[in-house]
Amino acid sequence: MGTGESQFTIERIYWERIFLNFEIFADCPGDPEFYLEGPGGRKTGLEAVKGKDSFIISMNMACAFEGSFLENGRWRLTAKSGEDNAEVKVCAITANAAYKLDELSRIFKYAEDQMAYNVSFGVVSEDEKSLEFYMDSYFMTENRRWKRRRYVKEVRRPKEKVKRFFMYGAVVLIRIYYHVLYAFIPKKGNRIMFMSETKDFLWGNLKYIDARIKERGLDSRFTLTYSYRSAAGKHQGLRDIPGWIKVVTKIAAQDYIFIDDYAPVLGFFNLGKKTKLIQVWHAGEGFKSVGYSRFGKEGSPFPEGSCHRKYTHVITASERLIKVFQEVFPLDREAFYPVGMPRLDGFLDRKNIESFKEGFFRDYEYLKGRKLILFAPTYRGSEQKEAYYDYSMIDLKRIYDFCRKEGYAFLVKMHPFVK
């Protein structure tokens, strides 16, 4: 690897939430190839978009290397020109950009702030004409006994240890049960399951996909299975074991699984390679922070083990929303299908609209002739069981005075998680 004056110079580094972006000037013939190289000979190619005077690399840190976070250690950006047998060189960084590196360090906390993922930057040369750039990536654990040097790793409290032991034991048993079933049930490519762990009925995108399959007569070709229950966000005890066994049994038999929300059970084991897990997220996304867009914030998912890491495919409402969904579900771009939101078909159907309006004004006759304002906020809080909404943030008196004066009605449709 070349260590002399580089043909490739980083001119700007900036963050967009969990996306780390580089603007790199390339003084070479042809389109260069960029790489990320780390400890132990790890290496992966990077996709670069050609701009006016530079190349732009946008790296989703949640899937930066082999579909996950970077391993602990030092990483470098390298590149080579488009010429045959060109030498791979370490990317340098301009002095102006290097001065700002300390400000760009990030600490993403998770596990109730007991753990963190740290990303920092630096250079290995004092010569401003050849400042070789590097990036350090480390996962860290809180050390409450930091004054005692012999304590390298924080020890959890006894109560937490016991709870963790039983939880881990349950997960191991579920994992073994799934893999034994998966091995004995043949996969013929004709089993589809619609699954929800947040609703006890079929709804939204799942309902419309199911209806479309039947409308096209594909239910004669595929065996359709359904699993829906209100389990996510609720305390699970011994009496819930039959429910877990039932849902894991169904999962093990499937070739394709469609889900529309968070499903914690899928984080307990890795699905067999012949099973495709398709996320048809119920929300349009981009309006609230969920999944790995919350990494480092309150309610952050763990770097590994989350069900959000298990999807093989995700549908999006449009091509432009792919990057937004990549932040939530850390997958390569090829895993996203911008086919639209199935449940929006009903919103665009004139007959459905007129039928709903007729029923709505029959139930709320006193709203006829008034202008309607619908307020439908998402919940606040890090998870379902902590969901709330602070109504004190709304000036209801002012809204009331406005509606009374202008002939409006202010309707509130609260998120179902808020009781």
Automatic annotation (TrEMBL):
TM regions (residue ranges): 165-185
Keywords, comma-separated and alphabetical: Cell membrane, Membrane, Teichoic acid biosynthesis, Transferase, Transmembrane, Transmembrane helix
GO cellular component: a single term: plasma membrane
Membrane topology of the entry: Peripheral membrane protein
InterPro entries reported for this sequence: Glycerophosphate_synth, TagF_C, TagF_N, Teichoic_Acid_Biosynth
Record family assignment: Belongs to the CDP-glycerol glycerophosphotransferase family.
Protein name per Swiss-Prot or TrEMBL: CDP-glycerol glycerophosphotransferase family protein
